[in-house]
């Protein structure tokens, strides 16, 4: 597997605040990695470092380049949609396509126009005349028409209704993603993307709490729904989270085999959201 | 590389409509002014009639050229004034607007360097805006000459001789081009300053740009009893070493029967060599380069989130 992003001891300080604190990870080609963390966890700072928008300490290589110092070369093979990267309101759709076509060597105008034909976005419209959903469709159409190796999405569907959100991810998977491409995505709506992800990373207070493939999550984490005597016995096995729901105990285990828990209650693979809460709470205790 | 700059300057043209709206507005005002003047002259001052354009009491060809050149220069100055105001507002808005409407991260998500973006804005102010103004000036001159020719013909004069034969078009236009681009180069330290303020300030770029230019001379005057800064900044526009000077005494000397050809040539009044070799021209360019570099640095290193 080719490693697209390689971070070793990456840190970013804002005065006394450590937004990213000695973080190391790798992202391999063909993966869809979800970067999950609460507000202020350091997600956006980390993404900005990956995109070369901010300098950082430590070793960071993206597509074999130093992102901050070789940003122009990097951005020929990397795209991003960020909630804060809004399209200029004064520009017309055709002007936007003209501009991207002129500056981006890997942009296919034909592809972008064919994506746009499937939407209600008119080519002579100005961005300020479009709804938020349509602006996101426009942005996505441009991004999907760029033959990039890495796509970074930072809260891409924030403020969109459920129909646009579903459509966004479906377009992304069906029309964009293949084994040659890699997607790094952050969102608060974890439930909506957990089925898309191949890998997941939790970040809190600038530190990585979890970095796993989705396949290995089922092996390493298990949730037990139990009560009474069995619950007491299970709690002795050291769950990382312990919640009470409708009189039943919901216990989350890390590194405890399913064989050891069988017979104590109902076993299932925890949702990413539950695992995230358990990990963040565990890190705070 | 050049494609990037063309695309970036197109972006400026799309984003800042005042770049073409201002010259069009001035051209309309000048043309309207000419039409009004001609109507006025036609109705109330029959005796002036063709005299204005050199038919009777302006003796010869060079005098007519002088009158038409004065008319050309007058309308060109209007453009130059409009161009100056437009450039101040444009350069102050150029790096501020993209932060204000939060589109900066989108622009920075494309493979274009911060240096290319900032330099494209400098080029827009020093090349594109003057070029559009020059086209507007030439267009206005031609339209106004056509209007005047029609008027002269209606009065029974020969437009071919009185207007087109007398207009030193090439001389005027070449001089206009030289003056406009020289002024752009001479005033470039201000452009650099405006770009820097536009990239740096969080609010009110106009105020932030002019406040130091007013306060520093005040402070210098109070504490050092000198006016060097004010002289360098506010006195600069009057010191452009381009104009060779007009010999007014000779121009209005009654003993001179004729105005010489050289005296009505605008180009003959320009000293390009002196402008190009003057130390202050180069110092200005260095200040502009330093401030533009500072603007690039701010756009590159500031965290916009």
Shape of chain B: globular
Q: C-alpha Rg of chain B, in Å?
A: 23 Å
Give the % helix of chain B.
over 70%
How many domains make up the 3D coordinates of chain B?
1
Taking the alpha carbons of the first and last residues of chain A, their distance comes to 37 Å
User: Helical percent range of chain A?
Assistant: 25-40%
The average pLDDT value of chain A, as a whole number, equals 88
Q: What structural class results from the helix and strand content of chain B?
A: mainly alpha
Give helix and strand order of chain A, one letter per element, not per position. Answer: EEEHEHEHHHEHEHEEHEHEEHEH
Proportion of residues in extended strands of chain B: under 5%
What does this 3D model show about the protein?
The complex is a heterodimer of chains A (285) and B (305). Chain A is α/β, with parallel strands linked by helices and 285 residues long. Chain A has two domains: 3-205, Rossmann fold, CATH 3.40.50.300; 216-284. Chain A is built from eleven helices and 13 strands. Chain A has helices at 43-51, 71-74, 93-103, 109-117, 132-144, 162-176, 190-193, 214-220, 228-235, 258-261, 272-284; strands at residues 3-14, 17-28, 32-36, 57-62, 78-82, 150-154, 182-186, 199-204, 207-213, 221-226, 241-245, 248-254, 266-268. A six-stranded mixed β-sheet of chain A has the order 5-6-7-3-8-9, sandwiched between helices. The longest helix of chain A has 15 residues, at 162-176. Chain A is globular, with a radius of gyration of 21 Å. The two termini of chain A are 37 Å apart. The mean pLDDT of chain A is 88. Chain B is mostly helical and 305 residues long. Chain B has one domain. Chain B contains 14 helices and no strands. In chain B, helix 3 runs parallel beside helix 9 (188-200). The radius of gyration of chain B is 23 Å and the shape is globular. The two termini of chain B are 29 Å apart. Mean pLDDT of chain B is 84; it is low at 47-51. The chains are: A alpha/beta (285), B mainly alpha (305). The A-B interface holds A 44, 48, 51, 53-55, 71-76, 79-82, 84-92, 95, 98-100, 102-105, 139 and B 3-4, 6-8, 10-11, 14-15, 98, 101-103, 105-113, 301, 303-305.
């Amino acid at each position: 597997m080719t490693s697209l992003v390689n971070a070793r001891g990456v840190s970013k300080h804002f005065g006394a605040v450590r937004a990213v604190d000695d973080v190391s990870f790798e992202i391999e080609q063909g993966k869809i990695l979800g970067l999950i963390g609460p507000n202020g966890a350091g997600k956006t700072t980390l993404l900005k470092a990956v995109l070369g928008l901010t300098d950082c300490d430590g070793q960071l290589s993206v597509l074999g380049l130093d992102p901050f110092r070789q940003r122009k070369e990097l951005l020929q093979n990397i795209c991003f949609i960020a909630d804060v990267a809004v399209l200029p309101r004064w520009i017309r759709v055709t002007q936007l396509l003209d501009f991207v076509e002129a500056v981006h060597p890997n942009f296919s105008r034909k592809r972008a126009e064919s994506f746009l034909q499937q939407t209600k976005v008119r080519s002579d419209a100005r961005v300020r005349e479009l709804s938020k959903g349509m602006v996101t469709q426009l942005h996505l159409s441009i991004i999907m028409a760029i033959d990039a190796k890495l796509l970074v999405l930072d809260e891409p569907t924030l403020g969109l209704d459920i129909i646009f959100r579903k459509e966004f991810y479906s377009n992304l998977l069906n029309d964009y993603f293949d084994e040659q491409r890699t997607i790094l995505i952050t969102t608060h709506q974890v439930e909506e993307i957990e089925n898309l992800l191949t890998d997941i990373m939790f970040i809190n207070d600038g530190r990585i709490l979890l970095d796993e493939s989705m396949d290995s999550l089922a092996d390493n984490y298990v949730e037990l729904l139990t009560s009474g005597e069995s619950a007491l016995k299970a709690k002795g096995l050291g769950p990382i989270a312990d919640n009470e729901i409708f009189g039943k105990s919901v216990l989350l285990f890390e590194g405890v085999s399913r064989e050891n828990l069988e017979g104590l209650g109902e076993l299932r693979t925890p949702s990413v959201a539950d695992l995230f809460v358990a990990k963040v709470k565990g890190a705070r205790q | 590389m050049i494609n990037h700059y063309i695309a970036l300057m197109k972006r400026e043209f799309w984003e800042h409509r005042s770049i073409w709206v201002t010259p069009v507005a001035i051209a309309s005002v000048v043309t309207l002014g000419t039409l009004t003047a001609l109507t006025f002259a036609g109705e109330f001052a029959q005796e002036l009639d063709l005299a204005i354009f050199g038919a009777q009491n302006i003796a010869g060809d060079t005098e007519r050229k002088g009158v038409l050149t004065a008319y050309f220069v007058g309308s060109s100055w209007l453009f130059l004034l409009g161009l100056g105001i437009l450039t101040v507002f444009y350069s102050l808005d150029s790096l501020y607007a993209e932060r204000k409407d939060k589109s900066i991260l989108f622009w920075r998500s494309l493979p274009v360097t911060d240096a290319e973006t900032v330099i494209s804005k400098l080029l827009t102010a020093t090349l594109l805006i003057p070029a559009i103004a020059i086209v507007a000036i030439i267009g206005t001159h031609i339209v106004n000459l056509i209007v005047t020719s029609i008027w002269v013909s209606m009065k029974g004069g020969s437009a071919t001789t009185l207007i087109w034969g007398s207009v030193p078009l090439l001389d005027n236009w070449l001089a206009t081009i030289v003056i406009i681009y020289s002024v752009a180069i001479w005033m470039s330290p201000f452009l650099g300053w405006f770009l820097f303020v536009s990239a740096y300030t969080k609010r009110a770029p106009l105020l932030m740009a002019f406040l130091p230019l007013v306060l520093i001379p005040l402070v210098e005057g109070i504490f050092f009893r000198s006016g060097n800064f004010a002289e360098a900044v506010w006195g600069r526009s009057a010191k452009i070493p381009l104009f060779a000077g007009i010999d007014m005494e000779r121009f209005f000397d009654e003993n001179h029967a004729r105005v010489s050809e050289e005296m009505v040539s605008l180009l003959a009044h320009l000293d390009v060599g002196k402008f190009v070799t003057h130390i202050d021209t180069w110092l200005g360019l260095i200040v502009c380069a330093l401030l533009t570099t500072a603007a690039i640095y701010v756009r590159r290193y500031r965290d916009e989130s």
